[in-house]
Specification:
Blueprint: E1 15-19, H1 24-35, E2 39-44, H2 47-59, E3 63-68, H3 74-88, E4 93-96, H4 112-140, E5 143-148, H5 161-181, E6 186-193, H6 202-206, H7 208-217, H8 226-237, E7 248-251
Parallel strand pairs: 1-2, 1-4, 2-3, 4-5, 5-6, 6-7
Helix pairs in contact: 1-2, 1-8, 3-4, 4-5
The chain binds NADP nicotinamide-adenine-dinucleotide phosphate (NAP).
């Protein structure tokens, strides 16, 4: 029998930054990274919810800190990266999870301001975070970035043009950064969920007719739970994926297979 390999999912003492970690998918990712030994920084707009996440993790014996940063404000993101480096050293893992989809409108009724708001958080904020944390990782000669995409990153969805464009851009940003940074062992990947039960989708899921249509279109015939998305993030954050870069893992119950 071959000797048992070291636990490739172990994240002991790795510094992992999760944006939008105060609720939804990001909160679960923060908990699951901490459960594998990571020192987690939860970052986002609302310090109350971020502090609650970090308090829960610490109460359960993990390591976590909350730092406020609006990911659509370049100065906040730059400051977040420098605060993390000063307090914990260069980040090992960055999970760009924060994202919004505040409008469902036909494209011809979408204003430029609405378009810009979505791109600012879902794409430009992710670029700035990748650049700032990427510099730390390149200098350290290692790192893993996980960007949160969506099925909307590879297929068009009705009344969601700006969101789809932001996630499609994010997937190609992911692949481009992966090519540039692979020689320095900085990996960049994405996770693309289908419909997950969170605040973001509550309106759709509670709308009986729409919910039924979405479930009919989903081969697994159910919505995802947050822990099912976090599992893919843990894989990409850890050494279990150390030869994987530039990929998007679909976690969508078969949506993009059909
Ligand atoms: N739920 C789904 O079905 C689904 C499917 C595919 C992809 N996704 C993606 O998964 C990610 C998380 O979604 P979710 O469902 O967990 O959404 P959610 O429950 O609405 O949570 C979104 C998180 O992002 C944070 N955020 C929003 N704008 C921000 C900003 N400008 N700066 C910093 N943080 C900001 C929010 O913070 P506040 O508490 O301050 O608002 C919140 O923590 C998003 O990127 C989303 O596009 C979700």
């Amino acid at each position: 029998m071959m000797p048992a390999p070291a636990d490739m999912f172990d994240l002991s003492d790795r510094v992992c930054v999760v944006t939008g970690g105060g609720r939804g998918i990001g909160k679960r990712i923060a908990h699951d990274l901490a459960a594998r030994g990571a020192c987690v920084v939860v970052a986002g707009r609302t310090l109350d919810t971020l502090s609650a996440t970090s308090r829960e993790i610490v109460e359960q014996g993990g390591k976590a800190t909350a730092i406020a940063a609006d990911m659509s404000v370049e100065g906040d993101v730059v400051q977040l990266a420098s605060q993390v480096a000063e307090r914990f050293g260069p980040a090992h893992v960055l999970v760009n999870n924060a994202g919004i989809n505040p409008i469902y409108k036909p494209p011809e009724a979408t204003s430029t301001a609405e378009w810009n708001d979505i791109i600012a958080v879902n794409l430009s904020g992710v670029f700035v975070a990748c650049r700032e944390f990427g510099r730390q990782m390149l200098e350290a000669g290692r790192g893993s970035i996980v960007n949160m995409s969506s099925i909307a990153g590879s297929v068009g969805l009705a009344k969601t043009a700006a969101y789809c464009a932001s996630k499609g851009g994010l997937e190609l940003l992911t692949r481009s950064l992966a090519v540039d940074w692979a020689p320095k062992d900085v990996r960049v990947n994405a996770v693309a969920p289908g419909f997950v039960e969170t605040d973001l989708t509550r309106g759709m899921i509670e709308h009986a007719a729409l919910s039924e249509r979405l479930l009919k279109r989903t081969p697994m015939q159910r919505f995802a739970q947050v822990e099912e998305i976090a599992g893919a993030v843990i894989y990409l954050a850890s050494d279990a994926s150390r030869y994987v870069t530039g990929q998007t893992i679909g976690v969508d119950g078969g949506w993009t297979a059909a």
